[in-house]
Amino acid sequence: MYPKQEVVAMLLAGGQGSRLGVLTQKLAKPAVPFGGKYRIIDFPLSNCVNSGIDAVGVLTQYQPLVLNEYIGSGQPWDLDGNNSGVSVLSPYQQVKGADWYSGTANAIYQNINYIDRYNPDYVVILSGDHIYKMDYSKMIAAHKENNADCTIAVIDVPLAEASRFGIMNTNPDGSVYEFEEKPAHPKSTNASMGIYVFSYDKLRQYLIEDEETEGSSHDFGKDILPKMLDDGLRMFAYEFQGYWKDVGTIDSLWESNMDLLDPNVPLDLTDESWKIYSRNPVVPPQYIAEGASVQNSLIADGCSISGSVDFSVLFSNVVVKPGAVVQDSIIMPGSVIEEGAVVQYAIVSENTVIGKNAVVGARPETIEDKDKWGIAVIGDNLVVGAGAKIAPKEMVSKNVEGVEE
Amino acid sequence: MRGNNIMGIIFANLHENLISELTEVRIMGAVPFGGKYRLIDFPLSNMVNSGINKVGVITKSNYQSIMDHVGNGKAWDLSRKQGGLFILPPFTDKSEYSNRMTTLNSILPFLRNSTQEYVVISDCDTVCNIDYQDVCRKHLANNADITLVYKRDVLPEKLHDPAILSFDSRSKVIDVLIKKDVSGACSYYMNMMFIKRELLIELVDNCISRNTLNFKRDIIQGKYKELNIYGYEFKGFSPMITSITDYFNANMALMDPEVRADLFNSDNPIYTKVRDDMPTKYGLGSKVKNSLIANGCNIEGEVENCILFKGVHIGKNTKVSNCVIMQDTKIGADGNLSYVIVDKDVTFKNERTIVGYVSRPVYISKGSVV
Q1: pLDDT tens digits, B264-319
Q2: A299 close to B (CB below 8 A)
């Protein structure tokens, strides 16, 4: 018998994140490194703990090894309680057969047993691919105050971008009267953040009904929410103010990392009252050598910098050798930038070596055809040979031969 | 049984008087070192990396900081059902922690209740990365009763009651002098020993019943003729912290890549308590050279030849050189610090200048406002 939890959070972490290409070849999107020492999932997990949510189910499916190992017992997030904490929920075999999670709603449906044992009043649905700090307890308080069945977190987006999101059209009291998925002509700019609070009795009922509905894609946005709206349930939008970014693409992942370097961006990771927890590698402090130049960058412990680093985010154990230049780039744990190499506007994944005098990426102003410019991405555990040249926007998944000089 | 047949005892509480500034608010083992560590991290990690999974930590008084640091031992993988970490403060009225011998006598029940055959005893006054498995191998090969870890070097000036060892060709101890006036290099005991647990219990019991209570004089010097006492020379980086200058120099030695490769050997890492700081932020116009910097710092000024602990802020146009600055100290704008050791949580307002000298760095105490 488990003690009752008023709130249970369910974190959807099974997505492949195919738009991140080589970065998610071997790991699920929520496990992608972010911000010099974090993985994306540290943000929703830390938000849960800081919001007082003690029971968190993490739904995994695609390439779960790294993610499972990272979450482990949940201890780094204080999510290793005796009767609560984090539980990794992967698809499993049942009496009537074995199924993969066929949609976001189906993934929750398959884990109704997990939720039931806590007998919660509310369930929070989260996704594992957003960077933001949010107090879910305020959203739950609003949900209670509105006597709502479902509350959807929304953020104000520029009108020009609104057609990329699910848009909530609301009455003056905040209740939702219409939900449009990626509308061509949006009526408002309230974009759904993919964060929902449900009263559990209603959610449970709709999940079971949806499962029996033929032709349903078992998706919250496409099936559950429209059905609830049709049935006249009390649905409210909850407006979130603050930094929020979907890091599902190479460009947005790069931008969001760079946002950490901008003092004007409201994403403060030094706030003692809202810490972002993570697993910490056992490494000595970072060393900045004589002759190094480091400007406007974020650098993690274990790094050794002898070259020049500018507007970049470096994860633990990165080595930048003398004469190497790293600008406007993200270098993930354990990668080495050899002497004379130049890395600009690039993401270099873990444990990769960029050989001597190699050139990766380029500054946008040096490229005439703007369509050919973009962030260069190098996969993990690769070697880019000495003197090799990787063009902007290129995505490298195999070793690159060096160039004889 | 998991782990090996060795247990560890760490004296976290000795030698404080040698660095009285740093130990005003903490015991020796809790003295911050190297940007993110405390001195106890080194013996504790060395023991864990050597396969030891039962460690007793001796503390006498003022042990809040060490308790806070080691917690349940999780960071060292010492939060265990079998073995693990044991904090051994005195049992009021029944214990006497007046010196090493009486302390060991007070923890005899802990030693008696253990099952490991051997004990490694270490103090917290040496920063090094030593493999006790190797000490154990030599101990067994020599069929020794006691193996003393020693170093061949010039004696640290302020080392208290140094035990100078002489050996035969097989490293067996043939003389022990306890004196300070030695010129040139000598072999001195590093306050680390390897001994059979039952022998340790017997020796301590004996000394207590005869009221011969000086561990070095009555065991090491008193018994080398009747017991097989051998030396184990440790050749790696291993400064002993016997003065504030030693402390400063040992920190500064970390700028040498070979020293870091030796001390922070990635096969035998040094563990410490985790604090979830974000990576360090280097601002526009920051200038950093030859410095060891921990996560969570925010650097807008100039930093040269410095150790910065977690959460240190260096303001705009401020220059710090040859300093050791402990965690969460905030230095305002337009300042200048040179040869200064700044303890935790110090606040420097704007335009502060403090200059020490290489042989006598200035010390600023914990929590002060300058």
Answers
A1: 999 999 999 988 999 999 999 899 999 999 999 999 999 999 999 999 999 999 99
A2: yes
Considering only alpha carbons, which residue of chain A is nearest residue B298? A298
Instruction: Identify which of A149, A145, A225, A236 has the alpha carbon closest to the alpha carbon of residue A190.
Output: A236
Q: Which residue of B has its CA nearest to A307?
A: B289
Rounded-to-integer distance, Cα A168 and Cα A180, Å: 7
| Type of residue numbered B58 | I
- Tell if the CB–CB gap between A301 and B294 is shorter than 8 Å: yes
How far apart are the CA of B178 and the nearest CA of chain A, in angstroms? 36
- What six digits make up the tokens of A278? 């993570």
Mutation target among B265, B278, B321 for the A interface, most CBs of A within 10 A:
B278
DSSP state of B21: T
- What are the two backbone dihedrals, phi and then psi, of residue A344, each rounded to the nearest 5 degrees? -130, 140
Q: Which residue has the tokens 């949010």?
A: A134
- Identify residue A162 by its one-letter amino acid code: A
Which of A193, A323, A309 is closest to A261 using CA atoms?
A: A309
How far apart CA A152 and CA A191 sit, in angstroms, is 10
Strand A376-378 to B146-154 pairing: unpaired
| Cβ atoms of B354 and B370 closer than 8 Å | yes
For an interface test with B, which of A79, A282, A296, A326 has the most B Cβ atoms less than 10 Å from its Cβ? A282
* B269 vs A: CB within 8 A: yes
Picking from B284, B288, B298, the nearest residue to A288 by CB comes out as B288
Rg (CA), chain A: 23
Task: Tell me the nearest-neighbour CA distance from B160 into chain A, angstroms.
Answer: 30
Residues 275-304 of B with CB under 8 A from A: 276-296, 298, 303
pLDDT tens digits, A267-276: 999 888 999 9
Residue from the list A278, A282, A299 with its beta carbon closest to the beta carbon of B276:
A278
pLDDT tens digits, B158-196: 888 899 999 999 999 999 999 878 888 999 999 999 999
Cβ atoms A299, A306 nearer than 8 A: no
pLDDT tens for chain B, 370 residues long, are: 456 899 999 999 888 888 889 998 899 999 999 999 999 999 999 999 999 999 999 998 888 889 999 999 999 999 988 899 999 988 766 677 788 888 999 999 999 999 999 999 999 999 999 999 999 999 999 999 999 999 999 999 888 889 999 999 999 999 999 987 888 899 999 999 999 999 999 999 999 999 888 888 988 998 899 999 999 999 999 999 999 999 999 999 999 999 999 999 999 999 999 889 999 999 998 999 999 999 999 999 999 999 999 999 999 999 999 999 999 999 999 999 999 999 999 999 999 999 999 888 999 999 999 8
Contact by Cβ (8 Å): A120, A4: yes
- Supply B280's token pair: 């360090």
**CB distance from A76 to chain B under 8 Å?**
yes
Mean pLDDT for the stretch of residues A18-36: 93
Determine the Cα angle at B185 with ends B183 and B186, to 5°.
95
Report, in angstroms and rounded to the nearest whole number, the Rg of chain B calculated over CA atoms. Answer: 21
State whether A296 and B282 contact (CB < 8 Å): yes
